[in-house]
Structure formats: structure tokens, C-alpha cells
Amino acid sequence: MSFDFAPVSDILFVILSVLSVFFAVLTVYTPHILRSASYLMGVLSLTAGLYILLGAELLAGVQLLVYVGGIVVLLVISIMLTVNDNKSVQYEASFLRKAFALLASGGFYISFSYFLSKSSFATNSFYLNPVENANTAGASAIKGVGLALLSSGPNGFILPFEVISLLLLTVLVSGIVIARKDTP
User: Fold this and answer.
1) Are 169 and 162 within 8 A, CB to CB?
2) Contacts of 59 (CB under 8 A, 6+ apart)
3) Is the alpha carbon torsion for 124, 127, 131, 135 positive or negative?
């Protein structure tokens, strides 16, 4: 008698996916804003773990640096600066709204799954075996992406990164100015 066990990557995928959905539900349903931001960090970190399983280490690193390291920290700082009381958000959705949300999300899931199965993603060999194809591309592809991100040439992306950094700085300073109590 032989047992056919699933590969470790499949088991890790299921574990990371279930935990990600669990933290996403906690993010939406917790009444405390800071806990919600913490659960959101968990969701984004687990998404980076899924990227690693798919062989996209660069994308996982960007996910951790940009979303977890930047946006969620900015969100937590903004919440800490603007919220003056420890009251939790009290909102009770009606049954009709919950049913509509369930139907809308289910319809989106079904239509997205249908279109994804009919697209070229379903038959493209890169997406069917990403780890093997990423290894054949080698480190030169990652080096090319890094050089493109930091170059100032016609195909470079250094200007958008600088604009985004100025935008985030402006948002942070604006949050501090709005949250600051006026001293007479």
C-alpha cells in the first residue's frame, strides 16, 4: 500500500492561503482600527510568502518593503496621530447589505475565475511552471529590473519613485499638521 502525499509546496500554499483569508476576514470584522492594521500587515506578509512559493522573490521583497514596510506603517502612524479616543468603531450592516456583498463578491470570483481560465495565463508555460522558468531566466532578469528601476534614462523609473516619496512625505506632514492641537 502506497500513499501519494502532496508536495510540500502545495501544503505550504494551502496553509498560507488559509491564513491569508483568515487575517483578511479579521481585518474587515475587527472593531479596533490598530488591530485591523496589524491584521492587514499579516495579510500582506502572507501574500509575500505566496510570491516566494511562486518563485518571484523580487516581487515578494517589493511587497514587504512597499506595502508592509511603508504603507501600513504610514497608516498606523496616521491613526495614532488622528484618533484621540479609544472608542471602537460600531457599525452593524443590515442583512440586505451583507447579502448584496456576498452576492457581489461571489459573482466577481466566478467571473474572474472564468476569464482567467480562458485567458493566455492558463496555457502559458511560464505561469504553469514559474520556478523552472525563473531559474532559466537567471539573475540577469532581476539585475535588469533593478537597473531599470534606478535608471534615469527614457525607460527608467527613478522619477516616479521620487514623486511617490514626495507624495508620502506630504501625506505624513499633512497628517501631523491636521492632528496637531493648536496652542493658543
Assistant:
1) no
2) 51
3) positive
Tell me which residues of the chain have a pLDDT lower than 50. Answer: 125-131, 134
Contacts of 157 (CB under 8 A, 6+ apart): 148, 149, 150, 151
Are the C-beta atoms of 79 and 172 separated by less than 8 Å? no
Quote the CA–CA distance of 60 and 51 in Å, as a whole number.
5
How many angstroms separate the CA atoms of 146 and 144, rounded?
5
* H-only helix segments in the chain: 8-29, 33-53, 57-62, 72-82, 95-118, 125-128, 130-137, 139-150, 158-179
DSSP 153: S
pLDDT number for residue 24:
94
Question: Is this structure's pTM higher than 0.70?
Answer: no
**φ, ψ (nearest 5 deg) of residue 178:** -70, -40
How many Cα atoms within 13 Å fall on the side-chain side of residue 93? 11
